[in-house]
Amino acid sequence: MAAQQPSDSDSASPAPGRSLLWPAVAVGLGFLLVYNSIDASAGVPPPVAALASAPAPAVTAPALPSSSPTPKPSASAPAVDHGLPRSEPERIRIKKIAVDAPFTPLAIGPSGRLDAPPANDMNLAGWFKDGATPGERGTSVVAGHVDTKTGPAVFLLLSTLKAGNKVSITREDGIDTVFKVDSVETFSKADFPNDRVYADNGTAQLRLITCGGEFDKKKKDYKDNVVVFAHMVGARNS
């Protein structure tokens, strides 16, 4: 898609009022959560194997809105029709759920699953360093905790996002990439649809993943994964 300037209502940094609302919301929801010890695994199936075995993208990729007009490129923004050059992400912002957090790179751990960000930092997102970077052509995978032993974490409210919400990611090269949410879905970890979640349809895609569903006290893990499907709609120099 061609670049377009993101709307101020979704891509701007959270307003002070919204930022101040986050602790209150987190505390309120905290009473409904059982905070758990999160181990070295994010409970996310490995993207490497899934991407290698993914079938034809036309079948598995999430559908993009067909009625949306093609945006015209901005003179001040890079073209994004075929994705941007590789550049590591530095910060993620999701105004609708008051997320404003730095990144840490993640790898596939000994368990065969994607490692999680350190559990001692509640405001930290991780990105799969061996996959596409946000804005690059392909599927970029970002994971974060929903909670930890000490309280709510960065993706506590991820499941409340709706289609049309915006996600902004600032990259090391100084470009702010903007993604539009297509859908938010919950999948059982026992039957995670690797091909669908990680499929590459030739455009810049984003997947935000966290834990969800019921907490299994015996396994000390959530039974589901919440996945946000999104595609890039714009980019601008920060």
Explain what you see:
The protein has a single domain (8-62, 82-237), classed as Sortase (Sortase, Chain: A, Beta Barrel), CATH 2.40.260.10. The protein is 15% helix and 35% strand. The protein has helices spanning 8-11, 16-30, 47-53, 57-60, 194-198, and strands at residues 41-44, 89-94, 99-106, 114-115, 125-128, 138-143, 147-148, 151-152, 166-171, 175-188, 204-216, 221-237. The strands form three sheets. It has an eight-stranded mixed barrel with strand order 2-3-5-6-11-12-10-9. Strands 1-4 form a two-stranded antiparallel sheet. The two termini are 19 Å apart. Mean pLDDT is 76; it is low at 1-9, 11-41 and 49-77.
Task: Detail the topology: elements first, then pairings.
Layout: H1 8-11, H2 16-30, E1 41-44, H3 47-53, H4 57-60, E2 89-94, E3 99-106, E4 114-115, E5 125-128, E6 138-143, E7 147-148, E8 151-152, E9 166-171, E10 175-188, H5 194-198, E11 204-216, E12 221-237
Parallel strand pairs: 3-5, 6-11
Antiparallel strand pairs: 1-4, 2-3, 2-9, 5-6, 7-8, 9-10, 10-12, 11-12
**Helix and strand element order:** HHEHHEEEEEEEEEHEE
Taken as a percent bin, the fraction of beta residues is: 35-45%
Q: Could you tell me the mean pLDDT?
A: 76
What is the highest CATH level, the class? Mainly Beta
Number of strands: 12
**Level-2 CATH architecture:** Beta Barrel
Strand order of the largest sheet: 2-3-5-6-11-12-10-9
Sheet of most strands: 8 strands, mixed, barrel
Helices, by number, come to: 5
By oligomeric state, this entry counts as single chain
How many separate domains?
1
Q: Which fold name fills CATH's third level, the topology?
A: Sortase, Chain: A
How would you name the CATH homologous superfamily? Answer: Sortase
Rg, rounded, reads 17 Å
Structural class: alpha+beta
Query: Tell me, what's the shape?
Result: globular
Distance between the termini: 19 Å
Low-confidence runs: 1-9, 11-41, 49-77
Q: Provide the helix percentage.
A: 10-25%
